[in-house]
Write a structure and sequence with these properties.
The complex is a heterodimer.
Chain A lengths: L1 H5 L1 H17 L13 H18 L6 H23 L3 H21 L3 H26 L6 H4 L4 H23 L11 H4 L13 H10 L2 H21 L9
Chain B lengths: L2 H36 L15 H11 L10 H18 L26 H22 L3 H24 L1 H7 L4 H10 L6 H4 L1 H14 L11 H4 L9 H26 L18 H24 L7 H28 L5 H19 L3 E3 L2 E3 L5 H7 L1
Helix pairs in contact in B: 1-2, 1-11, 2-11, 3-4, 3-11, 4-5, 5-9, 5-13, 6-13, 9-11, 9-13, 11-12, 13-14
The chains are: A mainly alpha, B mainly alpha.
Chain lengths: 244, 389
């Protein structure tokens, strides 16, 4: 019980986060009236503020802090609403918003190339394909079993446990030795605040790293993509000319 | 960050934004007059001298018309669609240098966001978000024609992003930078023969064709082709929201024309009057004017293309990208990489480009390539398609 009382702030924040997610999940609309999601929406800023208060320390650079809070908040809110949104088109769009938030974090941490490529690949191509498929597939109202979450409680608990585990892990690796709160010193996590090679985030630096340090992984990934491409061509049905 | 820096940025954004908006308004007039000229009629010539006040009348009409939102649409996404279209088109312009950046006056810069090292990647990143405007507008309209238009648009834009990105890799390899201003000055420092058009003509062709497809212009405007889809993705849009789609499209065209000039035609460089080291009085202004004149030429070319080449069919459109432009772009990258690796002289790239083009043309026009029982034709040029179909 000693551990629990020491980490009360961590556990309390996670419980608050879990409650927010549970409130946001859609319910069966035709039985016993529709529960309003207003409470869930109101809880979002509260739980975000609690998360920030417990885990974040200002780095002293105000502009940077504000940018971090905006980008991080966008990513978390986008992720929350993507999970709990009933309409798949909205869910895909919230996923795109979450991606943009994460890319904002990349930019803050001096990795603009990574951010741009992530936007091109995820927001620009993958989510567009999702929306494309959803538009093709979902013309009518979806079936009842598609409209309610199947295991909201279990999913929320497991998700919060995972987040807690990761936070404790990060804390053990990067955090200060004797914390009052469970606070992670973010200045350690920032790539740009560490002495690194000058052009690590630039295309030149990324290219050099990929083709020297990680050459084997790059070649392996390329081979897998090639195999996947050949497989996709092999299973694609042949169509008569001009019937696209 | 000082206050002067902040003020300079504000002024630059104001100049760029105002210039862009005014240009777009008058480009629409130019386009209508040009269309009328090509079709042997007068065009709008009543408002003001030779119709010069027509854009203002159009703008007032767009703003003052009743703002209809049909009852059957998804309101949030219906309004979000045109907003995204305009936002992405404007954000893409942020890193385009519209003058000699080094010689800018102290109170303003010639690029809104200077020293963006990922330059071209940023442009593609913003451009890839632009497709949301069309998709969401079409889907939210809850109309079969709109949905068909937006589906065509998404397939088209996602496909043509690939040759668009691959075509400029040759230029980037030759310069050694993704920064637009570095690419521009690399060409200007080498004079007239340093323009990338001489070493990368095939890349220019692929880039320009893909860019036309990205902007949904004729001959690639299948997402809004009137004969089949009424108005395509913007069938349900009226008044200012319709105008916003047009604004986005024209801003996109202007961005693409700037890119064409900066990547392939030496930007503000012109022999004798605007060299890299010319320092006579007013040289900066001359350079800005040279750049803008070049851009205007490309815009006029795009408008002439619109009224000259008929619209593609959808399978032709897809074949052009996947069977024509992408293989050619890939081989072009290979040629540039080989030439860089073995330090071949630059003229080998010109020869290589023409060799690829001729080889692709021969493959495309020399009959059918048999795959299984079906015959697949490799058409990479409009001529090839006329032959094949």
């Amino acid at each position: 019980m000693n551990w629990v009382s020491e980490n009360a702030s961590l556990i309390g924040t996670l419980v608050l986060l879990g409650a927010t997610i549970l409130m946001l999940f859609p319910t069966v609309s035709n039985s016993s009236g529709k529960r309003s999601k207003l409470l869930g929406y109101l809880l979002i800023p509260v739980s975000l503020a609690a998360l920030g208060w417990v885990f974040l320390q200002p780095t002293g650079d105000m502009v940077r802090d504000i940018l971090f809070y905006v980008a991080g908040g966008t990513a978390v809110i986008g992720g929350l609403l993507m999970t709990t949104e009933r309409n798949p088109v909205y869910a895909a769009l919230w996923f795109a918003v979450a991606t943009l938030g994460v890319c904002g974090l990349f930019v803050i941490n001096s990795a603009p190339f990574l951010a741009a490529v992530t936007i091109i690949v995820y927001a620009g191509a993958i989510v567009v394909t999702f929306v494309f498929v959803i538009m093709l597939a979902q013309q009518e109202k979806s079936a009842g079993y598609d409209r309610i979450p199947q295991q909201p409680l279990l999913a929320t608990i497991l998700g919060c446990l995972l987040v807690g585990t990761m936070l404790v892990g990060i804390h053990k690796t990067f955090g200060p030795a004797e914390p009052a709160l469970l606070a992670v010193d973010r200045s350690n996590l920032h790539v740009s605040s560490r002495p690194v090679e000058g052009d690590l985030g630039s295309p030149r630096g990324i290219g050099r790293t990929l083709f020297t340090d990680y050459l084997f992984a790059v070649e392996l990934a390329g081979t897998i993509l090639l195999v996947a491409t050949i497989g996709a061509i092999a299973i694609a049905p042949r169509r008569p000319q001009g019937s696209l | 960050m000082t206050w002067t820096f902040f003020l300079t940025t504000i002024i630059t954004i104001g100049v760029a934004f105002g210039g862009l908006m005014g240009t777009i308004a008058y480009l629409i007039l130019v386009e209508r007059r040009l269309a009328a000229f090509i079709q042997d009629r007068y065009g709008p010539n009543r408002v003001g001298w030779a119709g010069l006040l027509q854009p203002i009348a159009d703008g007032a009409k767009f703003l003052l018309k009743e703002d209809v939102i049909p009852g059957h649409v998804n309101k949030v996404l219906y309004i979000l669609g045109p907003s995204i279209a305009v936002f992405t088109a404007m954000a893409g312009f942020a890193i385009i240098p519209f003058g000699p950046v080094d010689q800018a006056p102290s109170w303003m810069r010639f690029v809104i966001a200077p020293n963006v090292d990922i330059g071209m990647v940023y442009i593609f990143c913003i451009g890839s978000l632009g497709v949301y405007g069309v998709i969401l507008g079409g889907w939210a309209s809850n109309n079969k024609y709109s949905s068909l238009g937006s589906m065509r648009a998404s397939a088209q834009v996602v496909s043509y992003e690939i040759p668009l990105g691959m075509s400029i890799i040759g230029v980037v390899l030759l310069t050694g930078s993704l920064n637009l201003n570095t690419i521009l000055e690399h060409q200007a420092s080498q004079g007239f023969i340093g323009w990338n058009i001489w070493t990368q003509p095939l890349a220019l062709l692929i880039f320009f064709v893909s860019a036309l497809a990205e902007t949904n212009r004729l001959p690639f405007d299948l997402s809004e082709c009137e004969q089949e889809l009424v108005g395509g993705f913007h069938t349900e849009y009226s008044s200012m929201k319709f105008a916003l789609y047009f604004l986005g499209e024209y801003a996109h065209i202007i961005t693409v024309c700037f890119l064409t000039i900066i990547l392939f035609f030496g930007g503000w460089h012109f022999p004798f009057i605007a060299e890299a080291d010319s320092a006579y009085l007013g040289a900066t202004l001359v350079k800005v004017l040279v750049l803008l004149t070049k851009v205007l030429m490309v815009i006029l070319l795009i408008m002439f293309i619109r009224w000259t080449i008929p619209r593609f069919r959808f399978d032709q459109l897809m074949n052009l990208a996947w069977l024509g432009l992408i293989p050619m772009a890939a081989v072009n990258i290979l040629v540039v990489m080989t030439a860089k690796q073995f330090d071949w002289p630059l003229w080998t790239l010109t020869v290589g480009s023409f060799a690829i083009f001729i080889a692709a043309g021969l493959i495309g026009t020399s009959g059918k390539f048999v795959v299984g029982e079906q015959s697949v034709d490799f058409g990479e040029s409009p001529e090839g398609h006329v032959h094949a179909h």
